[in-house]
Amino acid sequence: MKAEYDFSKAIKNPYYNASSQISMSLSQETLKYFKDLAKSKGVSFEEIIALFLNDCARKKLDIELKEVAS
């Protein structure tokens, strides 16, 4: 084994998927929206939701939370 290795010309593994699977609750209205949108685009609703969230993260979008009356 060498004492040191040169990784200066290394490339990222194109087969590595750094995503995580989670469980979350969505309202029926929100789920229907994403399912309808996914159907019109010919992809799964999970993929559409992931694309939306990835886009929000990439753009560093923020949301204003409003108080909900109890």
What does this structure look like?
By secondary structure, this protein is mostly helical. The chain has a domain of 32 residues. The protein is 41% helix and 0% strand. It has two helices and no strands. The chain starts with 27 loop residues before the first helix and ends in an 11-residue tail after the last helix. The model has no long low-confidence stretch (mean pLDDT 91). It comes from Campylobacter magnus. This is Antitoxin.
Instruction: Please tell me what the overall shape is.
Output: elongated
Count of runs of 4 or more consecutive helical residues = 2
In the predicted model, the low-confidence regions spanning at least 5 consecutive residues are none
The SSE order reads: HH
The major beta sheet can be summarized as: none
Overall average pLDDT: 91
Give the tally of β-strands: 0
Q: Gyration radius, to the nearest Å? A: 20 Å
- How large is the share of residues in beta strands? under 5%
Quickly give the structural class.
mainly alpha
The end-to-end distance, rounded to whole angstroms, is 66 Å
Indicate the percent of residues in helices: 40-55%
Provide a short characterization of the protein structure.
The protein has 2 helices and no strands.
What order do the helices and strands come in, and which of them pair?
Layout: H1 28-41, H2 45-59
Helix pairs in contact: 1-2
Organism: Campylobacter magnus
Protein name: Antitoxin
